[in-house]
Predict the structure of Enoyl reductase (ER) domain-containing protein.
Amino acid sequence: MRAIVYEEPGKYRLKEVANPQAKDNEIVIKVEACGLCRTDLHLYKGEFIADFPLIPGHEFSGEIVEVAKNVKSFKVGEKVVADNTILCGKCYYCTRDKDLFCENFRSLGCNEAGGFAEYVKVREEKVFPIHGLSPEEATFTEPISCGIHGVDVIDPQPGDNALLFGAGPTGIILSQLLKYNGVTNLVVAAPTQFKLDIVRRLAADEVIMVNRNDYSEHEEIIGGKYPRGFDIVVDATGASTMAERLIKFTKYGGKVIF
Ligand SMILES: [Zn+2]
Ligand SMILES: [Zn+2]
């Protein structure tokens, strides 16, 4: 099959590789769509948990073309999406029900073969039917799952007000999840007008333009309007410099997430 292969940091090729073969409880999916996110850029540079050579792509969806003999709940032809993580279930964190911190964490598209290929192999328990979603829509399952995990951690309460920095895909997804999970007043701050327009239409009660060159501008606006701060302050920009600036917008007893 053809696949994108990251061969070393900063270098990739479209090349011919062996097709995955399903065994035991494995399923082979013919990839129909695969999303890209900043994680892919980190992996491309050899950062995060990259393990080369690597077929990237952790946000894939497609059609089942092969099921191994022990697979019970899926058939060839079904449209599916997959959880790309592989957790050991035995390490210090897994045995304490904190398996996202698994010490033997493997991830399709990060350090195991992922979805930028014609076919990808996944274990049955990580496969989910997409029930009529388009392949492109289904690729959002992975980033939305990350957002839902974020909301689980934030645990918003009815009546909370929240300030969220960033209106990229993660910010837009998180905004909607916060709004539909109890946040009463959601303010989103970001530097790009068209993204603010999207988030305003979908979830935010108020949007504030961020001046990347002069943080004091938007910080004064926010501080002036919300002198007591917010119950929840979230950074969805991924910029480490942002984290330390969040606290000044947080109410006493509030939550900061980055
Ligand atoms: Zn991603
Ligand atoms: Zn583990």
